[in-house]
User: Fold these one by one.
Assistant:
Number 1:
Amino acid sequence: MERCYDTLQLLPPEVSWAAVPAAIPGSTELPQLGLRLVCSAEGPGFRAATQGTVLLRPRQPGDRLRLSGGSKSLKKLMIDRKIPAARRQNLPVLADETGLLGVHGIGPDCGRLTPDRGWYFRFEPMCVDPCHANKDEGESTH
């Protein structure tokens, strides 16, 4: 339990994770965060043109995100949105060689959105069906 601004919250522990290359096109799983990034030629999601290697990574000092109202450091943006400090490293950043494309839970970099070219990106929760997680093939439930 942690005090976060004016409330007490039960937060998951901060998870240690490292940058991983994103499958373009395809699906990239971050099981330690319970998330999956899906990249496809068609929506849904936000569309952005990429340059070079695309990574899913933790935030880094100096990261900036362009929003409709202008550019802000990711640190300041997370503080303004009252994202608890313990959760900030667990929000994956999608970036290529020229900068941020988007941040899970915050949104895309508006300066990188493209209407007519690029890939569609979206984050999805990784769900495990407890009824099917440990069943052997051909095993009956009756």
Number 2:
Amino acid sequence: MLANLILSVGSACAALAFWTHAGITRPVAYSLGLLTAARVRHNTPTGVILSRRDCARGDVVVARPMPSPVRSRTGALASLDLRSPVLANHLLRLHATLTVREMWARLRPLLRDNLKPASCCLEIGQEGDGSRHKVYRHAHPTPPPEWWRGHPAASWLEEHSGAPVCRLSDVIAPEALRHTSFYKRVMEREGWDRRLSILSWRGRTLQGALHFYNHIGGPNFTARDVRLAEGLQPHFHVALSRVLAHEASMVRAEQFAAMIEEVPFGLLLLDWDGRPLWGNSEAAHACAVWNHGERRAAAQKTRRVLLVPLTLSRAVAELRQEWEQSRRDGSESTPKARIVSEYDLGLHAQIVLRVPGSNPLLRPTFQIQLDYRRPRGDRNRPVSPGTLALAARLSGRELEVAMRMREGLSNREIAAELCRSPLTIKTQLVAVYDKLGVKGRMRAVALLNR
């Protein structure tokens, strides 16, 4: 059951990595079809979802409101002239971004051609002390966290959570602003006293803000600029929410992949044609032993090239034919798992065909669990070339501890047998883990029992 859970997680990681490598995700593909339309009614409200059918036909598009948790205080969103090819191209590029850094690069030309601020800044997240998780700035260097103390707009944002935009002159009068410590500490040093912000909220938490600045003594942002910012806010909110969700999923996928690397047996995921989509280091080594034998596999860097053994490819082809035959017969049953073994090498593989849910566009995949651990219980059994290569990294005293750990003895049992203290054994095991390149006992035992 643990293996099935880990294989399912591996499938999700592989699918996410595949679609990310291809540069296609569902929100991006949807945005590409959504922003292809070049002709939109002049009175079309911003924050819209355009019909794919109408976009493909090229007719005048009738827009329907986009579901967004943030709306302006007037109850209606400002108007954006999406008929402009330049603006449509900027929005298309914005909705196709996958990272915050890429989003920042797409936002700057959009702002330069529309709002024309003196400088701009993208802030992501907010700490308890008012500082931001990440700051991308156009002109000024990133300020230290203590600069955010006493910000004149902080209390207003707490009272008006969900507001789409914020103009600093609407929060505090310019005369009163000049007498604040924030003005003397930050604004005079950076040379601005006019700010207009586009805000993105997640519930009552500010997940990101896009700030525009004008120089001290320069013109204030007009009512037209505020309406334009309100029109851009839904696009900024949707793009930022998608980008943050994508980056969070990528971090989770990397964490899952690192966790699965520590599993003491091989996990391999193949696509419908039998090509490897993902595999951990144990699977790569087991495949190398299956293809070349123990001695040659011990000298190879198996992660560079993962070749599926011919025996496993034949079993995968048989499972594929059996599933296709059941589909032709009108049966929805899934073929039983296949067990393939190479007893002379101590290799065993369980192959399972995984059928996707109700999505007809996805083909089944093959999940393979590989076991390359020799039977225990005989301390005098021959040691494989791979184990000898690992043992060569250890000192004599560390090797004595490692070989007894390999047999499943506890630290106290090893200490009693070698007449050493348990603390000494623990210290030597830490050195063994470090030299074998593993993080724990289970992984070290798996390597030494190959």
